[in-house]
Specification:
This protein is mainly β and 129 residues long. The chain has no helices and eleven strands. The strands form three sheets. A four-stranded parallel β-sheet has the order 1-4-7-10, with no helix packed on it. A four-stranded parallel β-sheet has the order 3-6-9-11, with no helix packed on it. A three-stranded parallel β-sheet has the order 2-5-8, with no helix packed on it.
């Protein structure tokens, strides 16, 4: 059908661009809470595994934000402005730059969580109910 083959040509159409939900693309701005900045056009939830790649607009959290696992790749950055809250339900791996400012990071998984390459202004571990 024409979804895969160009009409009456037999040429196969292959999409070369794809991304996984939860991958930052920063196409609109630096605002974490703008859906069009995310692959799949959805702001992360506590179940979303987030990946911040290098290049382009880098995300800034200017209000509360949540995610499951959070990975900041080499050359990438994540900034939490002011005294906002980032809640992480999974693990946090930072090979880039994380700027917490006066913010609070809450880890709230039911089990063990890990973080690597991270410095905090406020760190709060919350035991889930």
């Amino acid at each position: 059908n024409s979804s895969y083959f160009a009409a009456a040509t037999g040429i196969l159409n292959v999409s070369t661009s794809s991304c996984n939900a939860g991958t930052w693309i920063g196409g609109t701005s630096t605002d974490w809470n703008t859906a069009s900045n995310w692959c799949g056009s959805a702001v992360p939830t506590s179940a979303t595994n987030v990946i911040i790649p290098a290049g382009g607009n880098q995300p800034v959290i200017g209000a509360s934000a949540v995610c499951n696992n959070l990975t900041i790749n080499t050359g990438a950055s994540l900034t939490v402005s002011g005294s906002n809250i980032l809640t992480i339900s999974g693990n946090f791996s930072n090979s880039g730059s994380f700027t917490a400012n006066n913010s609070t990071v809450i880890y709230n998984a039911a089990g063990a969580q890990s973080c690597a390459g991270v410095a905090y202004y406020h760190l709060h571990y919350q035991v889930p109910e």
